[in-house]
């Protein structure tokens, strides 16, 4: 299974490279993003976008057709699309488990939280480590699941726009993965990451450092008022807001919040 997982990681890295290349060149980026038509939009959001390139992986010729004959952009993008990507992680070599391939299904979101990648500026500040609405909320999501039960078996979260070099304007990203099958449970997080040590402390914490609200949560601003009210009652000031389902899941994985 390590070979399949490694391939998925390489695919996510290639998608991340494309995102970074597009974000570095604004004119190029806007050539590749169009607003979805009314019937295609996610009904939960007022504005949604279709990332042409992320879903297609087209070659120069096909990209040129999509971009109405534009040649410079397709040529630049084709180099990124066909560039070899190497993903190294020693932990992958320790994966020694066999999963029947005929039960595997794959779900992909090539660029979650597209709106933040398109419209939001790069200088949004984090709230105790959690970005409420920024390019850091953009993720590439890949899930391998059991088609018989629907249970996730392998997962990849690639965060392509974590930090930007102000001199070169190049973006750097991070990638996380995990595998859980039978008695095998392995992931890419460093063992030094601890939820208790990294979880944000609410402003209402007592002088002894203990919070009257022991739980924390990250949710969307578009959540129903009933859910907001319940979480506010349970978590108090430890209720955080963030965009993107993948990014919110990543906040939990990193131990920044409980749910």
TrEMBL record:
Top-rank taxon, per record = Eukaryota
Q: Which co-factor is required?
A: Mg(2+)
Origin species: Heterocephalus glaber
Cite the residue spans of the region called Disordered: 192-215
Biased segments, Polar residues type: 192-209
Q: Does the keyword Magnesium apply?
A: yes
Q: Which InterPro entries match?
A: CysQ/Inositol_MonoPase (IPR050725), Inositol_monophosphatase-like (IPR000760)
Sections of the chain in a coiled coil: none
Protein's UniProt name: Inositol polyphosphate 1-phosphatase
The protein's matches in SUPFAM superfamilies, at most eight in alphabetical order, are given as: Carbohydrate phosphatase
Q: Which GO terms describe its molecular function?
A: inositol-1,4-bisphosphate 1-phosphatase activity; metal ion binding
Keywords assigned by UniProt, alphabetized: Magnesium, Metal-binding
Keyword Magnesium listed? The answer is: yes
């Amino acid at each position: 299974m390590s070979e399949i997982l490694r391939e998925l990681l390489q695919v996510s890295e290639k998608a991340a490279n494309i995102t970074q290349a597009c974000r570095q060149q604004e004119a190029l980026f806007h050539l590749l993003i169009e607003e979805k038509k009314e019937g295609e939009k996610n009904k939960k959001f007022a504005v949604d976008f279709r990332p042409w390139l992320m879903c297609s992986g087209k070659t120069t010729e096909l990209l040129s057709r999509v971009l109405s004959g534009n040649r410079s952009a397709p040529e630049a993008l084709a180099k990124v699309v066909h560039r070899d990507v190497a993903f190294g992680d020693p932990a992958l070599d320790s994966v020694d488990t066999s999963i029947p391939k005929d039960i595997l299904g794959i779900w992909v979101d090539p660029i979650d939280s597209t709106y933040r990648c398109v419209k939001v500026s790069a200088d949004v500040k984090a709230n105790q480590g959690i970005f409420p609405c920024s390019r850091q909320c953009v993720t590439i999501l890949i899930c391998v699941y059991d088609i018989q039960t629907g249970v996730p078996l392998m997962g990849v979260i690639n965060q392509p726009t974590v930090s930007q070099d102000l001199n070169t304007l190049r973006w750097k990203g991070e990638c996380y993965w995990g595998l859980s099958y039978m008695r095998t449970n392995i992931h890419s997080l460093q063992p030094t990451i601890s939820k208790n040590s990294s979880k944000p402390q609410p402003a209402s914490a007592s002088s002894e450092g203990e919070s009257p609200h022991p739980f924390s949560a990250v949710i969307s601003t578009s959540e129903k008022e009933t859910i907001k009210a319940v979480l506010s009652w349970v978590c108090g000031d430890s209720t955080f807001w963030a965009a993107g389902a993948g990014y919110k899941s990543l906040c939990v994985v990193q131990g920044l919040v409980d749910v």
